[in-house]
Amino acid sequence: MVLRYAAFTTDPTTGNPAGVVLDAAGLSDAEMQRIAAEVGYSETAFVCGGTRPDFTVRYFSPLAEVPFCGHATIATAVALADRDGPGDLVLETPAGAIPVRTTTGTASLTSVPTRTRPATAAEITSALTALRWLPSDLDPSWPPHVAFAGNDHLVLAAGSRARLADLDYDFPALRALMARAGWTTVHLFWQAGAREFHARDPFPPGGVVEDPATGAAAAAFGGYLRALGRAPSRFTIIQGEDMGRRSELTVEVSPDDARVTVSGTATRIPD
After folding, report:
1. Which site from 102, 121, 125, 186 is most exposed, i.e. has the minimal number of CB atoms within 10 Å?
2. Which residues lie below 8 Å from residue 44, measured CB to CB, with a gap of 6+?
3. What is the pTM of this model?
């Protein structure tokens, strides 16, 4: 049975929808991939075994398995809390063990240790070409990086909110570039205030134009800010607004820990 949850929202018509299969122990890889394609969301999570508090979880986009997905982790944790009651969990994922704390309707995941590196000139040029952006569209105060929190994300800062809102990229070109580079999303962001960022995440490797909320990218972004010495201890990412699926992700960063915590609500999407 596939459950459907909207993550990082209390409104099932917004946020990022995820499929959740709580009883996937008997499913083959091919069956999980087929179900994810049929569901059609950017990610579907499959609980493949375990007993509380430890569960094994795998994630499939409509096109392929991915090592980690933040919004589907939040959705899965809330689904487990809805079934079993709230509490602490450890989700064993292909990217590593992810501790998760749940309350009613809310979950907080702690990423694997983050890392980040400056993007190369060739990577930046290729990405801007695929995005149909000019170098002048970037905010020069934020260096482009490739950031990791279970998978890799290219991080680019838009020079204005209008630039971020106007997303019209070359899907085949960006998909090919991301396949070569091994990036899961391109995390485009704009700083709205000291503790608020707006973001968009093209996701052609998953077969979708854009992800409305990306917990994995949010964790990687927190690691990026930490590495630059510019991370608030707690901040909000607004994502999905420009595609009509507003999502709110809360990110917590410690100066003494490379792991990042991402929190949000999730709500059941009616059948």
Report:
1. 121
2. 2, 18, 19, 20, 21, 32, 35, 36, 59, 60, 72
3. 0.94
